[in-house]
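2024-03-11 09:14:02 DEBUG pipeline.ingest accepted 1 chain
2024-03-11 09:14:02 DEBUG pipeline.ingest length=602
2024-03-11 09:14:03 DEBUG pipeline.predict start
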Amino acid sequence: MARNKFDVDERLETPFQWKHLKRAGKYIAKHKYKMLLALLLSALASVSSLFIPKITQWVLDEAVPNKDTAMIGKMAILFVGVIGLGIVFNTIRSRMMAKVSQRIIYDIRGDLFAHLQKLPFSYYDSRPAGKILVRVINYVNSVADILSNGIINMILEIVNLMFIVVFMFTTDARLSWIILAGLPFFVGFIILIKPRQRKAWQNQSNKNSNYNAYLAESIDGVRVSQLFDRQEVNIGIMRRLADACRTAWTRAIYISNSVWLMSETMTQLVLTFLYIAGVYWMGGGKMVSFGVILAMGQYVRRFWQPITSLANIYNSFVNNIAYLERIFETMDEPVVVDDAPDAHDLPEINGEVDFEDVTFAYEENINVLEHMNLHVNAGESIALVGPTGAGKSTVINLLCRFYNLNGGRILLHGKDGTTHDISQVTLHSLRHQLGIMLQDSFIFSGTLMDNIRYGRLDATDAEVRQAAKRVRADEFIRKMEKGYQTEIKERGNNLSQGEKQLVAFARTLLSNPAILILDEATSSIDTQTEKLLQEGIAEMLKGRTSIIVAHRLSTIKNCDRILYISHKGIAEMGSHDELMAKRGLYYQLYTAQAQEEEGACA
């Protein structure tokens, strides 16, 4: 899939093949017995209804001329019975298939979400969240119905059509051929319109995806939009996207409705020729009765009704094929960062880390790191500094294996003396021993207790409170109305940025990691709170390896080593005093920042 934003159509890189429907069959197979029973009930209801034209013929041709009131009464009871039987069978079938459809939605959505959980950061880096969300919600809903009711109805209408043809020919063969004469024209029309129809629905799918992507982005960024008074501009963009979506949908519906129009046209033409021929033959003594003509007229409707239904089902298949393609395209997105086939669990580590000849690029041929080597001792505190975009966060991302290396390897050392390449251990066992606090302190909806316990579900309430105390979060939490049971709004909107980072810090510390990773973790905390937090961090770092990315250089002065990341690797390395004495890149960065802070204070 090509990288894109909300106003760029997605390019479908895996065009539809019939094997996609076969692949979708695994979701249908789980419910095959219920679907077969539903098909049987529908078939019984449909076949029984075919006796209604026969009942009409018998009444008009036999009971009425012979004034047989008893027969008329029996036919009336039979007529009502057939209708009642159809209602009962169709009601049971509808309820059964509603449950099957919901189960298929559950299965597809579950598989899709599970796969999304495994996809690497690079997948989400290149896509608006709205375009991913629309696949999980809208597309799955549409596809599930066609995979359940659509297939059942298709089989039913084919069976129904076969029985109708039998009933027609047993009633009058000559008139039956007139009814069948319009079928080749209708099939030819379907074949001609198919390419345009599929292309139109793919375009509608793209426009709908763009619309949802911008809607999700706008809701997420509504505060910034209001801050910069962007409402009118945003409304204009939304109207443009909505208009494109409406235009694409209208064109797709216009093409799809032409199939229904063709079906209705053929029905009326065939019915006209049937009555003309029937009246002609009846007047010419060809032994065509009025009852037969009336019955065959009803069979015209019943013959073209399943034809129209099949055309509508075909329309639905074409419409939903575009959605099915998108769903399977997402499911086929490679899980680039995954456990190796022979991956083993990482034993308990001592915190020692080796970067050996590491090379990495987010985009091909644009290396962020080249042949980087670094040895981190167990219990050592390492700070990463340098200009924006130099690769500080990249070092952390690679250690956590959010991305695969382009070259080299990263080794962790176990307490048992063994050495392990992180690409050869399971992701769960690796990340379970890493305490990671990223720059973006994401807070989930739920209680504060739930958020702190997020990475360690077996932690007790006392352990949660202890972690909060160590990072100085306990004080502000206790001041809240419900304390640790306070409900957090989406993305922590009822917390300040500093409070969100304190909660995220408590969550990280609670996991009790062998290696603690902090990516600008104190960037949104005021100076006074940061001083208190540093006390908790200092206690947490005792005997524990730590890697810290910080924009405030004053906070990392006491680290064992400071690495200046620049020029695709480590440009300078040493303690704060050593680097200051060297008067190199770190010295320039530190003094420039100190001057800025002094100027801000003045």
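2024-03-11 09:14:41 DEBUG pipeline.report The two ends are 52 Å apart (CA to CA).
2024-03-11 09:14:41 DEBUG pipeline.predict end
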